[in-house]
Amino acid sequence: MLDLKGLTKRYATGDLALDNVDLTVPAGQVLALIGPSGAGKSTLIRCVNRLVEPTSGTIKLDGDDITKVRGNRLRQARRQIGMIFQNYALVERLSVMENVLSGRLAYVGFWRSYFRKFPQSDIAQAFRILERVGLETMIDKRGDALSGGQKQRVGIARALMQNPKLLLVDEPTASLDPKTSRQIMRLICELCTEQNLATIINIHDVALAQQFVHRVVGLRAGAIVYDGPPEGLTPEILTTIYGEEDWTTTHKDSDDEEKSDKKDVEAALLGGHP
Amino acid sequence: MTAPVWQRRTPARQYAIWLGWFLGVMLFLLCFKIISDNTIWEFLTDAHVQAASLIGRMVPPDWSITGSLMLPLWDTINIATVGTALGVLIAFPLAFLAARNTTPHPALRAFALGIIVSSRSINALIWAILLVTMIGPGLLAGMIAIALRSIGFVGKLLYEAIEEIQPTPVEAITSTGAGRMQVLAFSVLPQIMPAFAGITVYRWDINIRESTTLGLVGAGGIGLQMNAAINNLAWGQVATVFVLIFGTVIVSEWVSAKVRHAVI
User: Domain range spanning residue A7?
Assistant: First the structure.
């Protein structure tokens, strides 16, 4: 599905953000990208949809090389890749419906989109997705009238409107409380499984990641230092990724969470997880 | 052991600041002396008598001319409104060319900034003098003068508003595969709408006041009548013009406050 080869990014300042990264993500797999701040997680997913131009290496989406495409071909590549942001990145003065429909922009012409004359099939899809993410009563609310969790649901709906093959998720829960974080992570993972999407989630919360994802990739200083199942994150591995720290407390907490995950109510009550 | 000492500035820096203030005050006193030497103070001794006499001649206002002032007043409002609309129409695309985050090319940015600066550096009254010479006296000269001055004002404030938008929604809309114009329409435009509405009515408000003076140089509007009244020493009529302008400005203030409130 997604195939990165030798992906390298050196910023104009000289900082090497990504150092020769090889990564393959098959369809339907939810992958968590963990690592300390500045390890290159954000740069990696922004290189995939070319919000950041990679210095070298190749990006292949379903076999198509999209590393160097421009203009219309870049737009066509981008519309197959949905993106969800840490700070929701909604257009706050537009309504929920307009924000969701903006996921279809690459499929309609300028004037149709300007006058909000989206095809009926797009509007029907928007209603379906809004119902799926639980916002069917919020359709005409303005973006700035929503809570954090609701805004992130709009962000998810906007990404799904693109009918993407690949979902890039940048710190989806960093601005949310623990309960909402779990709900959002669960929603993202369910939707990826339902629609067989390849998904990369950047996340700081290791315990939360372990609970929901199929595969974990650890990034340190722009290079992959771990690639394996979530259970494989031993204290030694975490030290390799993040540096020296007492990891036993984290593990105790994550054990608690695995148990409580079976009972939603308990999970909701577990307020202060790391 | 003495208590540790903390000072906001080093002594050298503190003395430099004192010296700066000292030189500033000296400069002020010098300027005052030059102006004072060039002033005939005897004229000021009876200034209050002159002022009282002038106000005496203005009161009561000569209301008989009110009817004949209505058309010039309407012209003045039209000059301001059409001029603002014309200026905004040109300033809007210029602002997108001039803003660092939306300009298609640095050369176009320099071009747009050039137009904005040259428009701003010339007062509407001077534009009007130039235009009356070029296209003759009348409303059209006034409208174009107001428009030319407004381009720079609206263009500058609008491009600054564009540069201050949040970048993440722009990133989000770009990542959906939207085209360049769609990105502007869906992520930049909604963010600058409140600023755009505020700037436009604010400039309209200023233009109402500016267009009352354009008649002085023959560019149409109520200024023409005011000029004639002053030349005839008909101070009662001048007072009537003042009252009408005052009323118009109050109304325009009220309208702009309403518009700003409506678009937030």
Answer: 2-269
Cα–Cα distance for residue pair A145/A90, rounded to 1 Å: 11
The conformational region for residue A220 under phi > 0 = left, psi -120 to 50 = alpha, else beta, is beta
Tell whether B101 is covered by a domain. Answer: yes
Sequence-distant (≥ 6) Cβ neighbours of residue B237 within 8 angstroms: B61, B62, B65, B225, B229
pLDDT higher than threshold 90 for residue B154: yes
Total tally of structural domains belonging to chain A = 1
Nearest to A207 by CA among A258, A245, A171, A272: A258
- CB atoms inside a 10 Å sphere around CB A271: 8
Give how many domains chain B has, as a whole number: 1
What residues in B contact A87, CB-CB < 8 Å?
Answer: 168
C-alpha to C-alpha distance for A46 and A59, rounded to whole angstroms: 12
Phi, psi torsion values for B14, nearest 5 degrees: -60, -45
pLDDT value for A137: 93
Residues in chain A, how many? 274
Tokens of B100: 């660092």
Interface probe, candidates B165, B166, B174, B176, chain A, greatest A C-beta count within 10 A = B176
Between chains, do A155 and B172 touch, taking CB under 8 Å as contact?
yes
Q: Which letter does DSSP use for residue B261 in this model? A: H
Q: How far is CA B179 from CA A97, B175, B190, in A?
A: 20, 10, 16
CA distances from B5 to B1, B10, B11, B17 (A): 12, 12, 13, 21
Q: How far is CA B225 from CA B56, B146, B246, in A?
A: 21, 19, 15
Counting every residue written for chain B, the total comes to 264
The H or E element that residue A227 is part of is strand A223-228
The tokens describing A159, both together, are 């990404």
d(CA A169, CA A181): 13
Q: CB–CB of B219/B128 below 8 Å? A: yes
pLDDT band at A273 (very low <50, low <70, confident <90, very high): very low
Domain at A71, CATH number: 3.40.50.300
Res B146: pLDDT: 94
**DSSP, res B81:** H
Inspect the interface and report whether the beta carbons of A91 and B179 lie closer than 8 Å: no
Interface contact A105-B175, CB threshold 8 A:
no
Report the predicted TM-score, pTM, of the whole model to 2 decimal places.
Answer: 0.82
